[in-house]
Specification:
Belongs to the AIR synthase family. It holds the Pfam family AIRS_C. InterPro entries: PurM-like_C_dom (IPR010918), PurM-like_C_sf (IPR036676), PurM-like_N (IPR016188), PurM-like_N_sf (IPR036921), PurM_cligase (IPR004733). Its EC number is 6.3.3.1. Pathway: Purine metabolism; IMP biosynthesis via de novo pathway; 5-amino-1-(5-phospho-D-ribosyl)imidazole from N(2)-formyl-N(1)-(5-phospho-D-ribosyl)glycinamide: step 2/2. This protein has 408 residues and is α+β, with helices and mostly antiparallel strands. The protein has twelve helices and 15 strands. Strands 11-13-10-14-12-15 form a six-stranded mixed beta sheet. A hairpin with an 8-residue loop joins β1 and β2. α4 runs parallel beside α5. The protein is globular and about 55 Å long.
Amino acid sequence: MAAKLGVVTVEARQNPIVFCSTRQIYGVSNTKNSNICFKTKPTSLLTPQKLSSSALALKGVGSKGVVEKSRGFVSVSSSGNEAGGLTYKDAGVDIDAGSELVKRIAKMAPGIGGFGGLFPLGDSYLVAGTDGVGTKLKLAFETGIHETIGIDLVAMSVNDIITSGAKPLFFLDYFATSRLDVDLAERVIKGIVDGCQQSDCALLGGETAEMPGFYAEGEYDLSGFAVGVVKKDSVINGKNIEAGDVLIGLPSSGVHSNGFSLVRRVLAQSGCSLTDKIPGETFSLGEALMAPTVIYVKQVLDVITKGGVKGIAHITGGGFTDNIPRVFPKGLGAVIDTDSWPVLPVFKWLQEAGRIDDKEMMRTFNMGIGMVLVVSPDAALKILGDANGATPMYRIGEVVTGEGVSYR
């Protein structure tokens, strides 16, 4: 793939870094092909061959084991994963346990629990965030795609701090491995530099840790830390959100950097290879899954200047179900219109191959929407009216009285 090359000097590191400034984003079209890749015979009734037209017509029926089809994904009805479909917890990740830990930490350090931490400094707040890229790293090792994992790393932190309206100032990274492969590390840092350029922030420094025997040969771990700034009178905190406000969704490039423990479980169960094509598409599973996380900094800060933005939710672990309520005052919830945006083919494949029900999909993955803005109705008209085709936005729901997120 063609790439532009340049040189940037990072003062905190000893050598200039050659970086790749472009990378294709995969997975932006929708497939009309209902077939999916199964290398092993599925055991569930949720195979395309067994989906009768009468069963597909039963959308909304809640009896045990009924198959539904809505907006392109196939699932068991609301009775849960009775047909043996996978869950995030099956893959080893317990969202409820994570939420419980946050509650316990909040008792020791009150105020923790938002997307970014705010530190008062004069008439402004410094806003800080930290994150990694999770087990998406495992797919980087398998695919050999290391140039974009650094973009994911930057994105996960800067996308969190812009939910407060903060402009990112600088980023620091931590790269750890058992034996330092300089060429491989350079490729990873290329992506970090690119992510910082997309965020209009400085790569201020980082730590490279060589830890013999701690990681498998050829593997590494990453974490990142971002700091931004916002004026105190401009901070976005959700306090003024009210029933009737509009939810605007910004499209994702794919799975981004959450839910990969479940992704990997689905891959193992399906028997598919990362080189297999997604049905009806020209790109492979590996390319779709490794599409770098969208960095929303410039787009979101531009929208904020239009006025009327009351709250912003970054859709990461916990999906719509857990992330959107984080910005609401007590007593408010959301209704999401599930047919209001195009669902990317990679999510349809994951749901069908893993026989994952709708509820689990909405609580694990971003489903094609990586950031949600809560805005006043008047502001929604202006923001959506000003949106252009290159960066589409979708009206995906509204704020309602009563807590939690429901889907229609």
